[in-house]
Amino acid sequence: MVPSHRKPLKERALSKSNQARPVGKKKRHVKASYASEDEDTTFTPEWNDCRRNITDALRCYKKLRKDKGLRDNLSNQHKMNPEQGRCHSLALDGRVANILKVSGKWVNTIKQIGCLPGIKISDEYHWRGELCVIGLHYNFQRGIDYISSVEGKTLATSIVDSYQYDRGIISKYPFPNLTYTGEGENRDQMFEGGNLALKNNIHYKKPVRVIRKYNSDDNANASGYKFVYEGLYRVTKFDKEIESGFSVYKFQLDMLDDHQQYDSKWKQKRIRRH
To answer: Per its UniProt entry, which superkingdom is the organism in (predicted)?
Structure first.
């Protein structure tokens, strides 16, 4: 759910056009809080247009997820295979995201490193598929998403702390510094895929977007959780440790300064009136 100062939009058919996840044994509540615009700057019309598109895409996502009849109708229109039985969890997220994709509702469709237009720190989302639809994190299941650079090197674009393996991020709130456990369950981790990408981010000094999963205290999601965009972090170093008899990589991440969180091309000076 992208925050807005407007009243909630009335749901309609698709148009054309806390307490945190457990860290160790502790839990905490994180209430909905949204980053406000910088007092001295405001975003460009193009950035705001993208944010409106994101709000619309997420509204459509929510409606589609609840309405199987609407999913079936749009699937038939786009000649998609019929929905098999009752979709649940990630299967349903994937189904909804694919319908929105063929409907032309995806936003930020080019996978890229750094901040994205229309997205603010502390924006909240309720399903994994939403992260894909708005371009924040394209991988439905893996915690590390990455791209291949022009030189053929893999570089990490984003990480999601999903606690799938009771690992992920280790930190205390607030968290300007994070430790992220690499990919690889019940085996020795290798420098491949997402782990290699995070290592390359250190060498090439590329930031990574961080999304964390929290237990939700507002019952906005039947699963009782939400995803929060925490901002851009730089990967500074890694260590190799032993956990449960397997070697794992621990990546150190440091949050970028406020002025580096949003690309200057999306910001313009606020006109002061005296």
So the answer is: Eukaryota
For residue 155, CA distances in Å to 27, 123, 148, 230, 232 come to 32, 24, 6, 19, 14
Task: Give the pLDDT confidence score for residue 14 in this predicted structure.
Answer: 55
Is 12 among the domain residues? no
Please state the domain count of the chain. 1
* Segment (H or E) for 20: strand 19-20
* Alpha-carbon span 22 to 32, nearest angstrom: 18
8 Å CB contact between 109 and 57: no
| Per-residue buried b or exposed e for 213-235, using 16+ beta carbons within 10 Å of the residue's own CB | bbbbeeebeeeebbbbbbbbbbb
58 contacts 1 by C-beta, under 8 angstroms? yes
Has residue 61 been placed in a domain?
yes
pLDDT 10s digits, 31-70: 333 344 444 468 999 999 999 999 999 999 999 999 999 9
| pLDDT tens digits for range 205-221 | 999 999 998 887 766 66
Residue 100's domain comprises 44-263
CB atoms within 10 A of CB 144: 23
List C-alpha distances in Å: 145 to 118, 132, 183. Answer: 20, 11, 11
User: What is Dmax (Cα atoms) for the chain?
Assistant: 66
DSSP assigned state of 25: T
Question: What are the tens digits of pLDDT across the range 234-269?
Answer: 999 999 999 989 999 999 999 999 999 999 999 987
Coil, strand or helix at 224: coil
- Residues constituting the chain: 274
Q: How far apart are CA 145 and CA 247, in angstroms?
A: 21
Structure tokens at 167: 């690992």
| Residue at 164 is within a domain | yes
